[in-house]
Amino acid sequence: MTNYTGEAPSSDGCQCPVAVRPVLYDAVTLRHFATVSRLDLLFACHSEREEPRWTATVKKEVSRAADLGRSECRSILEMSWLGEPVTPAVEDLRAIARLRVALGNAGFEAEDEASDFQHLGEAESIQVALRFDFCFVTDDNDAYSLAKGRLDSSRVFDTVDLLRLAVANGDLKVSGAIDVANRIRVSGRYLRHTYDRLLTPADFW
Fold first, then answer.
1. CA proximity to 47, closest of 84, 83, 85
2. Which residues make Cβ contacts (< 8 Å) with residue 185, sequence separation at least 6?
3. CA neighbours within 13 Å on the CB side: how many for 74?
4. Closest to 158 measured CA to CA, from 105, 117, 196
5. What is the pLDDT of residues 34-85, one digit of tens each?
6. Which domains does the chain carry?
7. ω into residue 52 within 30 of 0, thus cis?
8. pTM recorded for the entire structure
């Protein structure tokens, strides 16, 4: 695990283009694609961008689930392109704690009190993305909503956004994107509540 040593955005507001910024993945989205054996789509979308691609807690969440027998999580841990997870700086811990509380009070998701990592991976990812001008990918309703309010909205994505990108890049046909989304849903996993319906080709144009 590493501390990111890049520079935060300059005080004059200069930012790097969204197309080249590092992308941090939440565990839920990684597990969506792993469940249907399509982590290759994430590799195609973002492997050429700089690391980091996940935080220390997100990797721990995936590792814990793998230890509990979740086979899709074992496949995530085998993805070398995810690289070393970033460990937040000490000076970010207070902000991460506040974000974690905000996510706990956001109200969309069912709470899982048994998890030691409740909301921590999402809070870490949002704070690191905020500090270093990164992008963030999640299908957690609360985390997505909060990130949209804290980050530039063009820097927050979900599974359907990534499938749109795969279509635009020629890595999937529209029918293939719909199939991946439907397979994720059939597997018992959930897209964001915005897509609590059957997707159509119009969702991917």
1. 83
2. 191
3. 6
4. 196
5. 999 999 999 999 988 999 999 999 999 999 999 999 999 999 999 999 999 9
6. 20-106+114-204 (3.40.50.1010)
7. yes
8. 0.87
